[in-house]
C-alpha cells in the first residue's frame, strides 16, 4: 500500500513535485521549461554584466594570475596568501 504524505497530492499534474527537505518537511519545486531556463540565463547574464562590467580589467587580471599566465605575479600572490595564513 502506498503511503500518502500529510500535504496530500502535492502538485500532481501541475509541474511541481514534493521534495523532502533536510528538516523532514516537504517543499515544492517548480519544473522549468526550456524557455523559462533560457530567460533565467539571460537575466543572470545581464545582472553579472551590470555588476562586473566596470571591473572587467581587474577580473581579467585576477583570472590571468590565478591561471598562472603571469608566473611572477602568481608566485607573489601565492606567497602573500600563505604568509597571511601563517
Automatic annotation (TrEMBL):
Keywords: Membrane, Transmembrane, Transmembrane helix. Transmembrane segments: none annotated. Residues 10-26 have a biased composition (Gly residues). It is a multi-pass membrane protein. Coiled coil: none annotated. InterPro entries: RETREG1-3-like_RHD. Residues 1-37 are annotated as: Disordered. It comes from the Eukaryota. It holds the Pfam family RHD_RETREG1-3. It is found in: Membrane. GO terms for cellular component: endoplasmic reticulum; membrane. Residues 53-86 form the RETREG1-3/ARL6IP-like N-terminal reticulon-homology domain. This is Reticulophagy regulator 3. It comes from Bagarius yarrelli. The lineage of its organism: Eukaryota, Metazoa, Chordata, Craniata, Vertebrata.
Amino acid at each position: 500500500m502506498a503511503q500518502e504524505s500529510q500535504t496530500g497530492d502535492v502538485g500532481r499534474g501541475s509541474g511541481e513535485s514534493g521534495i523532502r527537505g533536510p528538516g523532514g518537511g516537504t517543499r515544492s519545486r517548480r519544473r522549468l521549461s526550456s524557455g523559462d531556463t533560457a530567460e533565467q540565463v539571460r537575466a543572470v547574464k545581464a545582472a553579472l554584466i551590470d555588476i562586473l562590467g566596470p571591473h572587467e580589467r581587474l577580473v581579467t587580471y585576477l583570472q590571468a594570475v590565478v591561471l598562472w599566465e603571469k608566473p611572477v605575479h602568481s608566485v607573489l600572490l601565492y606567497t602573500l596568501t600563505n604568509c597571511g595564513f601563517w
